[in-house]
Write a structure and sequence with these properties.
Radius of gyration: 30 Å
Strand order of the largest sheet: 6-9-10-22-21-20-17-11
Bound molecules: aspartic acid
Helix content: 25-40%
Oligomer: single chain
Largest sheet: 8 strands, mixed
Distance between the termini: 54 Å
Shape: globular
Amino acid sequence: MTYPDHAATTLRTHRCGALRSTDVGAHVRVGGWVHGKRDLGGHVFLDLRDRDGIVQASFDPAVVGGDTLELAAAVGRESVVLVEGEVVARPPDGRNADLATGDLRVLGPAATPAIPVARARGEPLPAEEQRLRHRYLDLRRPELLGNFILRHQLMQTTRRVLSERGFLEVETPILTKPTPEGARDYLVPSRVQPGEFYALPQSPQLYKQLLMVAGFDRYFQIARCFRDEDLRADRQPEFTQIDIEASFVAPDDIYALTEDLLLALWREAGVEIRTPFPRMSHADAVERYGSDRPDLRYGLELFDASDVFRGSEFVVTRAALDAGGRVRGIRVRGGGALSRKQVDALEALAKGAGASGLLRVKRDAGALTGPAAKYLSPDAAHALDLADGDLALLVAGPDHISSPALDRVRQEVARVLDLVPAESRCFLWVTDFPLFERDPVTGTLGAVHHPFTAPRPDDEALLGQHPERVHALAYDVVLNGTELGGGSIRIADPRLQQRVFELLGIDEAMATKRFGFLLEGLRAGAPPHGGIALGFDRIAMTLAGAPSLRDVIAFPKTTQARALFEGAPSPVPEQDLRELHVRLAEPVAEASSRE
Ligand code: ASP
């Protein structure tokens, strides 16, 4: 058998961005995109761009023929060209090399680009909708390309670190059975099993647990997950997690492993971080910061001012205290300087988070001012620990209202007063989450993490009488107020798993139907096991210094869960639906199904 002679037909070229002054004198061929073009009195210069950078090709009328010159003068920006010639030094510093050309071929002429790729310094980006619609052009921007080069390196580092530690990379199905992670599933109808559906995985949770039952011992996957959640800024319906599970582990093992991995990832991006990370219990985090993912780059800790208001006739706080609530708030040193408008804006945030208002108490020239001041005793300023010029911002009510409201206020005060140090990184483990949360309206119990999370062994006795007081062996890793990931030690005992299902309102029949394969697995001899999942897109975004997750996902969706570039989702022909045994409840107008 003979093979074609590839060498004779190869289009392999030099890389534009790789030509150096050491290449001067060489005859080379480069392929790239026309990034920019200048015509200086008949002498045409083309900036050619590829993945590695830019080289300038010079078409000097004294050297190249008229046809080539004409072609160079006519070629459109963003066209793909092949240029051949001699490398010459670029005066005066000669750091970059130029290409004095002999030949030009236009391989891929470009229509006038819908959005510019090359921008002048300071020129704003086109609107994001335009950039998403013409994604192939946007991805040509060196900044975006840089993000993907970093993302690639982070992936390789993840694989290296984990496989060096004996973790096996295993792929789990995309067409799967629903796994509850608290969001809605994307469903895929089965053609061959009429009326039945697969779910796209919200996470590989059950599969990774079953791999532990199978004795794989240490697993990881850079896993694509799908969650059909309501629109929120900077969430993607499909996203990538570094998913990890290990057997015979306790939380400390997972903390140490995760810290090693994050250290390596940050180092890959040129940043040294310090491990181990500090830890804070969930209860402390909510008490001191009103949030289970506190930003520790600045202070503004919450404090309890209930005692200062107890017994006062001030109606707002009295009603809250009588109903068993508290008065909590933050002290803003020098906050008296905030304008009324700024404080009104803070109040609007507190109200948006559910509070009925934001109480202001200010100290000025030794006296307290604000609506509550006249109801307070003379030593209240002391009790509130306010100095002249300080401001206390308070919320009265039950903790589940004041915590989120004060969390929002705290973050905004830090932003407005510029209290967030630019370069600091505060990693934190939040530990000992509650196992369950009770729905304030229906009173039913829900899982805080997911139903497979193990209770702390010393709390198991509370499961019967006080399930909401049971702590979980669950943890989140947080950076500067953002959750990077979370995980837990899992329930390995099938009877305990069944009991937790029951508390969650999943009876035996339902448990068998939904999670029978897990329960069966646990009955087959399950090692103690646990793990974590880290949001890979978020890590890449943070390390790239990108403003949006969409800047580190090659083909992202909008907040309306649409892919603008390829136009998904889209209606499908009636016939396709029939084959899938699916009928639309209402016909969808063609126009309304597109953006
Ligand atoms: N499966 C969980 C999640 O996706 C993470 C874990 O518990 O490992 O959030």
